[in-house]
Amino acid sequence: MSIYNIDVRTIEGTDTTLEDYEGKVLLIVNTASACGLTPHYAGLQQLYEDYGDQGLVVLGFPCNQFAGQEPGTEEEIKSFCELNYQVTFPLFGKIDVKGDNIHPLYAYLLEHTPAPYQNGDIEWNFAKFLVDREGHVVKRFGSRTEPSSLESDIKQLL
C-alpha cells in the first residue's frame, strides 16, 4: 500500500484518494479552527503560495480530538479558513488522528515516519508531516513548529 491509495474525503464531501498528489511534495497537517495554534493556517498558506508552483501541496485534515477545538461542520471549517486565512490549499473532511478510530492516513503516517522523527501519537493540533515526491514520509514536526521554519526542509525536496 502507498500513501496515494488511501481513501480520503474532501471538505466538500467527495470520496477520493491522494493519487492526484503523486509526484508532489506534501505537507500533511491536522488542523483546528479554535486553537491557540490556528494562526498556523497563515504560515501554511504562505508556504503553499511560495512553493506550490514548484510542487508543494499543503493538505489540511481538520480534527476535533484535542479539547474540542474543531467543533464545526466541514462547511463551517471551509468558510472559516477562507475568510480568516484566505486558505486555498486542499482541505479534507474531519478525521481522527489517534485512538481507536484513527484514520488510515494517520496510521500510515505514524507507521512510516523514519527515526528519529517517530514521536508516538499525535500530541495536538497542527502536527506536520513532510512527504517526498515518491510518497515517503521524510519528517514529522511538532504542533508548535512554525510553518516558516520548514522552508529549508521543503526546498531540499523540491
Automatic annotation (TrEMBL):
It holds the Pfam family GSHPx. Residues 1-158 form the Thioredoxin domain. InterPro entries: Glutathione_peroxidase, GPX_AS, GPX_CS, Thioredoxin-like_sf, Thioredoxin_domain. The active site is at residue 35. Keywords: Oxidoreductase, Peroxidase. It comes from the Bacteria. GO terms for molecular function: peroxidase activity. This is Glutathione peroxidase. It comes from Paenibacillus roseus.
